Amino acid sequence: MQSKLISMKYSIILIMGLFFFSLFGVAHYKGSDFYYFVFDLIWLTVLISSLSLAQSYISFYLKIMLFLGVWLKLMFYLVLGVEFVEPTGYWNDVHNLGLYWDVALMVASYAALGILAADVLFYLYRRFSYSSNGALSLKSQVEVPKWYLKNPKKIWLLLLLISLGISCINFKTHFYMIGLSPAVIFPYHINFLLSWIWIFFLPLLIAYLMGLDALTQNYKNWHYAIIIACLISVATLSRSILIMWIIPCFFILFKESFYSLVTQYKKLVITYVVLAIISLGAVSMLRSYYFYSPNSSHKTTSTDKKSRKAEKKSDGLTLKKLIVHNKSNLKFQLQQLKSLPISRWVGIEGILATTAYPYVGWDLFKKAIFQKPTQEVSLYSKISQSYMDIKAGTKFSSLPGLIGLLNYSDSFLIVCFGTFVICLLMYFIQFFYYQVGLNIYFLSQQGFLLAFFLTELNVPYLGVINFAEFILASLLLLLIHKWNALCPNVTAMRQGRLKIEAQNSC
Prior knowledge:
The chain is an all-alpha fold. Among the domains are: 8-130, no CATH class; 150-339 and 443-474, no CATH class. The chain has helices spanning 8-23, 33-53, 57-79, 91-94, 98-128, 134-141, 146-150, 152-173, 190-215, 222-235, 241-256, 258-262, 266-292, 305-310, 319-327, 330-343, 348-356, 362-370, 379-384, 401-406, 412-435, 440-455, 460-482, 497-504; strands spanning 143-145, 184-185, 301-302, 489-491. The protein has a two-stranded antiparallel ribbon. The chain has a two-stranded parallel ribbon with strand order 2-3. The longest helix has 31 residues, at 98-128. It is globular and about 65 Å long. It starts with 7 loop residues before the first helix and ends with a helix. Residues 132-139, 296-315 and 488-506 have low confidence and may be disordered.
């Protein structure tokens, strides 16, 4: 389950380069140099522990995402003058005061301490409490069920057809699209079921099947996974699905050998890059039309016959409308795509906004914990002063992220202890799935999604629900995996680095 990316030697070289880069930010930092360098060194330690010492996939991905959202965004702001994309609320009134900068960086530093403390404790647990039971998980990780070996292509084709069917329904009804309120409310909570399948179950299932294909050296079926991810990405207006669903599996191949990734798996890489470009372009055009075009209409309707008769049908999207709108909006779209690599990651803005907010404290923290999502302006929208309502029928909200959410308490101790407990819990959850023998491709995907959900936290109540949905999807995949015990198994031991990695992970 170890996810070491590069050796310690190369990590140290990278860290030295980043530290040298950060020195240029000292002149533009308004606060104390001491707090700046404490922040700098502790977050660079987080990065090096991720690249060369990560003990699980969730540990690797979470540290990388938080580093990008906190350290890298801040350095881009101080060194390169890149403005923060997300609103920071009252921070605009105090950004020239060094005291507030020092407090914000101390919040981030205490969060990093919590992450590192969770790493140390998890390492000690594995070092002194974990026995040779790992051999059992290794045995299970290299078993491929006979039902899959018999007809893998048919299983992928069925999955592709199901995804295509649901995507067509979504384009027609808009039951789940990023940034849009549901246009159709199906009875019996069907919206919830379809969303759960798309967001939680399907990516884990795809990664699990990709792992089975890797064990049998049948990488041709990975093309189906890339096509499905591209399809869902466009259907949900999500620019990140093609990354979230496929990159974690490519990461395993990258760890084996970068050379083989661009030679042996060259067709896979080309397919992914081409479809990623197509997907990103299509999603950008659709988002621009739905969110900014005055000619598009969108409203929530019901599948109830009486209600449906009383409501007017919204104007449908046509290719002509899409092309006409995007011709006049091309410059704006290019600007958004240009800022995407930096704006994608949540972190420093939430810390700054909550640090500057005058009413933070235990009462606000309790209010945030028990707040339920409503149609009204969210708590963090008030804190960050991000009242986003671009057009009727759209829904957007800035995100505080895990650290910003804990900073509602105005307590370094809660920030540190909160990140420590949450990270440790995530480590043990993934460790459980490793012990029961799910393949490393599933574990990589699971770790990526868990890390992404944590860094994108907004309303804790909704976060708990999403976490429960995620655990439900993981348990269902575990049942599918354990079905092997009831059916004849065929062991497909893959030769080479994958076997070595699995053995070293015990």
